[in-house]
Amino acid sequence: xxxxxxxxxxxxxxxxxxxxxxxxxxxxxxxxxxxxxxxxxxxxxxxxxxxxxxxxxxxxxxxxxxxxxxxxxxxxxxxxxxxxxxxxxxxxxxxxxxxxxxxxxxxxxxxxxxxxxxxxxxxxxxxxxxxxxxxxxxxxxxxxxxxxxxxxxxxxxxxxxxxxxxxxxxxxxxxxxxxxxxxxxxxxxxxxxxxxxxxxx
Length: 201
Ligand SMILES: N[C@@H](CCC(=O)N[C@@H](CS)C(=O)NCC(=O)O)C(=O)O
Prior knowledge:
This protein is an alpha+beta fold and 201 residues long. The chain is built from seven helices and four strands, in the order E-H-E-H-E-E-H-H-H-H-H.
């Protein structure tokens, strides 16, 4: 079994890197900004986005799908609750919530800050996106009151997934008055294998 990860450090590919490191699974890394232009990436991701993965030759994209697959296919590591359990439903809840209510807004701002050409950028969206992302982050802040980790109060791939959006929100300057979330972010960064030190989009 060989795993190849297409990645660029400051992007959502960091979620997959961290998951692989926590699982102790060896992998080949195709890394760097130039990866976006590789034909091999286009063969996996129809929009040539990162992260992308080949597992034993099979192509997979979307960070949530990849992280879940990796954790599910290495069940002994206990990094994700089994399908059909309530803990798994909570994992699905927090990952879907993070994507829809937090990350979509952060990404829209990021695209208008540095992905789109100058003529295409709409700075008016920053404030609205920050407001909506903060509503989602505030829900996570509440969920973390009196808890260390999101699901069953033990570290899991849920925290790897949600943690990236929390770190991203921190970078966009919208987590300041969310104390449980800020403490959670610090706990994540303090973990030995956490690669979220250098990220952002
Ligand atoms: N929902 C996707 C997001 C993929 C995505 O947009 N990745 C960014 C990097 S974080 C990218 O490849 N951007 C290049 C582009 O938009 O063309 C995931 O979580 O994997």
